[in-house]
Amino acid sequence: MVLFVISIIALFGVAALAIDGGRLYFERRAAQGASDDAAMTGALAILQGYNTPEVESIVLDRAMVNGFDNAGDDVQVDVHWPPIAPNPYAGDRNYIQVFITSEIPPVLSQFVFIGSLQVTVEAIAHVQPTGPIIPGYAIYGTNPSACRTVEFSGNPIVLVKGGGSIGSNSDADCPCSSMVSGGNVFVEVDGGAITASGCWNNLGASGNTIPEPITYVDQLDLDEIKASVPIPDCGSTENVKDYGDVTYDGLATIEPGYYRSMKFTAKADVTLLPGLYCIYGKDPWTIETKGGARIQGEGIMIYLMSTAGSWKSAGNAYVSLTAPTDLVDASGNQWAGMLIYTHPDNKNEIVLTGTSDSYYQGSILSLGSHCFIEGTSGEVSFNTQVYCDTVTVGGTGDLDVTYEEGVNYQVPAALELSK
Q1: In the predicted model, is pLDDT for residue 20 greater than 70?
Q2: 127-149 burial string, b = 16+ CB within 10 Å, else e?
Q3: Using CA atoms, how far apart are residues 203 and 198, in angstroms rounded to an integer?
Q4: Distances from the Cα of 208 to the Cαs of 138, 157, 187, 326, 382, in angstroms?
Q5: Are strands 294-297 and 150-152 parallel, antiparallel or unpaired?
Q6: Residue 107 has pLDDT above 80, yes or no
Q7: 3 state DSSP class of 287
Q8: Are 138 and 408 contacting, i.e. CB atoms less than 8 angstroms apart?
């Protein structure tokens, strides 16, 4: 009889584990799915501009639709915008946190376990609102460790207007240096700052920087920056013409499409029609502009597709290029405000300069390249945001840089589950 009683208890324990344990498992799965859905719905509400009470109400309604009513006795739904500690996203209003606690009535487990059957799950959704690639910066070197990630050289006057800043992401210490100034450069940032995640080193015989650089600031997450911007889709060559290698030696009008390379001689006088130009060649200079050439275009985007494409503008060439205000690629990505985009693994140089009155408008994104932003004897104007692996700002003339978010590229809004 004793053995029989013990066996019966053991059987009840196994049955409780099989029945109530299975019910708990399925309840957890249902609760996790409901919390994930509620968190993503809350993130979308945040993106759409709802206030805190409205967001919480929307999340609770979504949880109820999925079978977890906060008004019930056996369910508790907690919404935290921003998330609460302990949590790596605590206090960040770009994240929303949802807890669902659900209690189910036991069937057999009360014979071997006294207590409630309860599950608690958590979901965190991330909101990436639309905005600049790196907010607040007109010029930024993204390399996390290189020496001289941002360098001022030559003897120009560099004026940054509109409240934009100049920054280096490198944590390099002196004498390697995250940011350096050589030559006789005068740099003035009006309304912004000059920042470095490592050491600032002034190597110039003269010149000055206004304001004084701020050093050892927090680094940015380069992977996050890369993930925020999609890869352009130029479309099928069945639908988009491939022009191959082209050289222009006089008056010409160019249409968007695929190009292996584009060369402009000193006699070139070329107008680029609006659209997406996809350059896939691997020449030392995939796009090259000789001195004396004139290149202009409105509403254009240049995409250096390969890992070896490059751009070199001669100092005495006239260049006037503006980014599109509305350009959608074959995958539906919006590229308004993007002037030059290079493949993230492209490590070749981008040299942008020109004669007096040359003008560039739109974002320049080249996260693997070294970019030269140079003035000549006149004044070259950049109404741009320049984000490159490393950046040299200098030349022999003046650079006028205007920070204006409205004319530059905005990263697309996105939602994702972080937990």
Answers
A1: no
A2: bbeeebbbebbbbbbbbbebbbb
A3: 16
A4: 19, 10, 6, 40, 21
A5: unpaired
A6: no
A7: strand
A8: no
The C-alpha atoms of residue 33 and residue 373 are separated, in whole angstroms, by: 50
Please give the C-alpha separations between residue 24 and each of 29, 62, 103, 323, in angstroms, as whole numbers: 9, 22, 9, 56
Tokens read off for 232? 């352009």
Peptide bond into 132 cis (omega under 30): no
Handedness of CA 303, 304, 306, 307 (dihedral sign): negative
Phi, psi of 322 (to 5 degrees): -125, 145
Low-confidence winner among 5-19, 307-321, 353-367, 401-415 (lowest mean pLDDT): 5-19
Helix (H) or strand (E) holding 15: helix 2-47
Helical residues (DSSP H) of 222-309, grouped into ranges: 222-228
**Distance from C-alpha of 353 to C-alpha of 382, rounded to nearest angstrom:** 10
* Model pTM score: 0.79
Per-residue tokens: 51 = 């206030």
Under 8 Å between Cβ of 237 and 258: yes
Residue 326 CA to residue 184 CA, distance in Å, equals 41
User: Which one is predicted more confidently, 389 or 357?
Assistant: 389
Query: Strand pairing of 117-128 and 95-104?
Result: antiparallel
Average pLDDT, the chain: 88
pLDDT digits (tens, 9 = 90+) for 147-182: 999 999 888 888 999 999 999 999 999 999 999 988
**CB distance 371 to 391 below 8 Å:** yes
Q: What is the pLDDT of residues 264-277, one digit of tens each?
A: 999 999 999 999 99
Closest CA to 316 of 293, 299, 300, 339: 293
**Closest-CA residue to 301 (of 362, 235, 359, 242):** 362
Q: Is the model's pLDDT at 377 over the cut of 70?
A: no
Kind and range of the H or E element at 387?
strand 379-395
pLDDT band at 5 (very low <50, low <70, confident <90, very high): low
Q: Output the six-digit token pair for 90.
A: 């605590």
Give the residue carrying structure tokens 């896939």: 280
Report the Cα 314 to chain-centroid distance in Å: 30
Do residues 146 and 199 make contact, with C-beta atoms less than 8 angstroms apart? no
